[in-house]
Amino acid sequence: MSKARESLELISLVVLMLVITGCAVKEDKSRGPKNVNLRFAGGAFKLYDEFRRQQAVEFEKKHPGVKVKYEPVPGEFNAKILTQIAGGVAPDVILTFGPMALVDFVKGGALLPIDPYIKDDSDFDISLIYPESVDEYTYKDKIYALPANLGTNALYYNKKLFNEAGLSYPDGNWDWGQVLNAAQRLTKKDISGKISHFGIVISYLESWFGFVKQYGGELWNKERTECIIDSPEAREATEFLKDLFKKYHVSPTPTEIANEMGVGGSIEVFGMGRAAMMYGGRWITSVLIHQKDLDWTVSPLPKYKGKRLGVTGGLGWAISSQTKYPQLAYELVKHLSSPEGIRFMIDMGDSMPIHRTSEETEYFLQSCNRPREENQIYIDAMKSTFSMKDFVNPNLIISTTEQRSIINTELERAFIDEISIGEALANIEKKLNAAIKKK
To answer: In the prediction, which pLDDT does 4 show?
Structure first.
């Protein structure tokens, strides 16, 4: 054998060993890579931030050689993450705020599908997670996130104000007509003639689509090729919402909430005891459990023509397309979405169970020092819900943020009587149809 050939074979052997060694560092799940830094980001909220830092420490204990940093993002989370993606400095794991954010992130090339990692993971059984929660983060038959929480909505009410008015509490038989009747009796004025207590408070723009769905309306046809919001059902739902604050004035207008009542949202109005009822999601419990002087509970959502329909939704942990360590990022996503992580969200009053286990369900039913029958209402509500995926259209050439802006702008014009509700819905339909990608 010639000296040249011996040298060539030696070099080849060294290269092969380096490749094998390098691959082992990345893929050996038992040993794990060394000196790796992972980052994950979510919306800034003090109590959650502290827990997520604790989750980072727990993950580091299980993965020696890995350092994990949690980065809370204040303000416009989605916009800031997309800016980081564009700049090539995105975190390894990203908190995704529902199907609308998911579509924008996927279209922006921000996320990796996690299906391949789930398929290769013999220790993980995704069937234990509620299908509704998995579906929230499935886009074009690919799963992009595991749930960080799960919730649906209910009718919150102030027991003290009902008692003072001599009214029976809402129950599972109530419809929206009964809510309106009660709200009229619960709306009180002070000696100056100014309303001191409203019958109900609703975040109109955030709640609008839920009412449209319950009234039988749809934003898109089944093929997602046409916007069909200009319908009798959508008009009736929108009219009902507007009548609450405009015709009957049993609910504060957005301007009254922001300016006259000195607070920034419907939750604060209810929490201050200034409204007898509120339409809202499970996560609101995380705020109200700290209102020690507020005597409140919830009832099932009111019906419309015998039909009850709520919205299910939640946040999800996803893998950034820019991560250098996708396998480790997947392990971190699993860790964040683990039963231990979800129990914290349940303790906070933020989440329902996401795992279909009797242990997690029982844990939820006993959570937050709330009555067991109150927590059971949310479990029962999951039988009649829809997903905000119904709001999303992957065929749009605009972002879901722009889609929502179009809708909100036209609704706001209708709510201040600049245009009629029929005109607003017709404008929404026309503008969204113009934004659908033509095949």
So the answer is: 37
The tokens describing 148, both together, are: 């960080």
Which residue, among 363, 340, 351, 413, has the nearest Cα to 51 in the 3D structure?
340
**Hey, how many other C-beta atoms are within 10 angstroms of the C-beta on 42?**
24
Specify burial of residue 390 (Cβ count, 10 A radius: 0-12, 13-18, 19+).
Answer: middle
- Asked if residues 96 and 105 have their Cβ atoms less than 8 Å apart, the reply is yes
DSSP result, 72-131: EE-S-HHHHHHHHHHHT---SEEEE-HHHHHHHHHHTT-EE--HHHHHT-TT--GGGB-H
Q: 34-73, pLDDT tens digit by residue?
A: 789 999 999 998 888 999 999 999 999 999 999 999 999 9
Give the model's pLDDT for residue 19. 36
Give the Cα separation of 290 and 270 in Å (integer): 13
- What kind of fold does domain 19-151+313-377 have according to CATH? D-Maltodextrin-Binding Protein; domain 2 (3.40.190)
End-to-end Cα, the chain, rounded Å = 64
Rounded Cα distance between 5 and 393, Å, is 61
Domain 155-311+384-434, CATH: 3.40.190.10
- For the chain, which residues score pLDDT lower than 70? 1-33, 260-264, 439
- For helices 400-415 and 98-107, the axis angle rounded to 10 degrees is 140
Q: What is the pLDDT of residue 53?
A: 95
Q: What is the location of CATH 3.40.190.10 in the chain?
A: 19-151+313-377, 155-311+384-434
- pTM tops 0.85, yes or no: yes
Give CB contacts under 8 A, 24+ apart, made by 161-165: 161/186, 161/197, 161/273, 161/276, 162/186, 162/276, 165/276
Q: Which two tokens stand for residue 391?
A: 């709001």
Structure tokens at 34: 């060394």
3-state SS, residue 13: helix
Whole-number pLDDT of residue 438: 77
pLDDT for 101 equals 92
pLDDT for 32: 58
